[in-house]
Write a structure and sequence with these properties.
By secondary structure, this protein is mostly helical. It has one domain (23-58, 67-331). 58% of the residues lie in helices and 4% in strands. It is built from 14 helices and four strands. It has helices at 2-9, 23-51, 77-91, 97-122, 131-151, 208-234, 240-259, 262-268, 279-297, 306-323, 330-333, 335-358, 370-375, 394-414; strands at residues 160-164, 171-175, 184-186, 194-196. The longest helix is centred in the N-terminal third of the chain and has 29 residues, at 23-51. It is globular.
Length: 419
């Protein structure tokens, strides 16, 4: 809103109105504003949740300090959602399709998580919203994002073409003047760094491009579902999902800025996506919101985000990566989420297999998701993997996961240059 207001005022030569034309100014403003909302108004929301007795339902898993968390206000993801939406609505270009899609994704996944938390709290149902309804909601968002990217004339890219100067032996990157609809995306560790989904459907002949979009939409649905559920599983100890998401969000913000600038895109020889740089404003609000929420969510947590926050964070990260065509970098950047997902899948599959074969279920990990494995001392549970022997304090697990997340973010950036 402010962007459009100051753009209007600029016509009357109002001093300072032109600042809102700069993405860096609006991004910095969005970060500060979201941080302020999360810290200042977040305290009031937490107090309100306490008065409403919206407390966390804690299952006794025998972990140290776990039952002390009982009654801690949950559904704090509302703080994150508000802290993201307000700066974006005030400072973002509301006629930009990328910004609109991110706002829709935030509200959609936030509402899905809120419904899950509401059922848990209001009806004292620890299972919350049935899994099939969560999947339907995530698939629905994937369809909205994928079809919009396919149908919207505003979502295009400029294909990069690299040539070698025979005299200086330097690679020069140029961009085709015509913006095109394309199913290309960024792929790591490959010389040209681009991958076209349509190459998988060449057998469809003249319909190969349409087939490529179908594959792209299916990938979009899978990525949103996997990352959203991965973030949900990661939200098991104080500050873990929040801090990890802030690190991932920072990496995506930088990649978005690079891909939205023709200068930096040329230097890195990556695809240039016109108008996508507007998402830097959204990413800045996202970073500010998660850091502000971490103020209250760090150990010992004064509030939990609940599924309202965790499903929303994962959905936001997935949609953002898809919009800037970096979804194939997610297995590296969001490896923590995927490892948490895989640990649960491996545990369940191995338990069922051993129960069917030996009549008694056995475990690979002491406990899942994986972060709980490190909280459990050796010998307490009969599992194949008993390391570490002693339980690691919750705060130390969180910090080590943060360090891994930073390392993964660095590796993700390195892939843009190593081919």
């Amino acid at each position: 809103m402010l962007y459009h207001l100051f753009k209007y005022l600029q016509e009357y030569d109002i001093p300072g109105a032109g600042l809102f034309n700069f993405i860096t100014f609006r991004a910095g403003f969005a970060l500060i504003l979201s941080l302020f909302i999360a810290i200042v108004f977040g305290r009031r929301i937490i107090d309100r949740l306490q008065l409403m007795q919206v407390g966390e339902i804690v299952r006794n898993l025998g972990l140290e300090g776990q039952m002390e968390k009982k009654g801690t206000p949950t559904m704090g993801g509302i703080i994150i959602i508000i802290s993201i939406l307000v700066p974006c609505l005030l400072l973002g270009k509301l006629d930009n399709v990328y910004m609109l899609l991110m706002i829709v994704a935030t509200i959609w996944t936030g509402a899905l998580g809120f419904a899950d938390d509401y059922i848990k709290v209001a009806h004292h149902n620890k299972d919350g919203l049935k899994g099939k309804f969560k999947i339907v909601g995530q698939v629905g968002l994937g369809l909205i994002v994928g079809l919009t990217m396919y149908l919207s004339p505003a979502i295009v890219m400029n294909e990069n073409v690299s040539t070698v100067n025979t005299q200086t032996n330097e690679t020069v990157v140029n961009y085709k003047s015509e913006s095109i609809k394309s199913t290309q995306t960024t792929i790591p560790f490959v010389k040209n760094n681009n991958f076209d989904y349509a190459s998988l459907t060449k057998w469809m002949g003249e319909h190969a491009q349409t087939g490529g979009w179908i594959v792209f939409i299916l990938v979009t649905i899978f990525v949103i579902t996997a990352v959203s559920n991965g973030a949900n599983l990661t939200d098991g100890i104080d500050g873990l999902a929040t801090g990890t998401s802030a690190i991932i969000g920072t990496a995506l913000a930088v990649m978005c800025y690079l891909g939205g600038s023709v200068i930096y895109s040329s230097y890195l020889n990556i695809m240039y996506i016109p108008d996508s740089a507007e998402l830097v404003v959204y990413a800045s609000a996202f970073i500010g919101a998660t850091i502000g929420f971490l103020w209250y969510n760090s150990y010992p947590a004064q509030v939990f985000m609940g599924d309202t926050g965790s499903l929303c964070l994962g959905g936001i990260i997935a949609v953002f990566a898809i919009l800037i065509r970096k979804e194939l970098l997610i297995p590296i950047l969001c490896a923590i989420f995927f490892v948490e997902d895989l640990s649960v899948m491996i545990q369940v599959a191995y338990f069922k297999w051993t129960k069917r074969k030996y009549g008694e279920g056995k475990r690979v990990f002491k406990m899942t998701p994986l972060h709980h494995h490190f909280q459990t001392p050796a010998g307490k549970v009969d599992a194949l993997w008993q390391h570490p022997m002693k339980a690691i304090p919750e705060s130390k697990i969180t910090m080590r996961f943060f360090l891994v997340a930073i390392f993964l973010a660095v590796i993700t950036f390195v892939t843009l240059k190593i081919r």
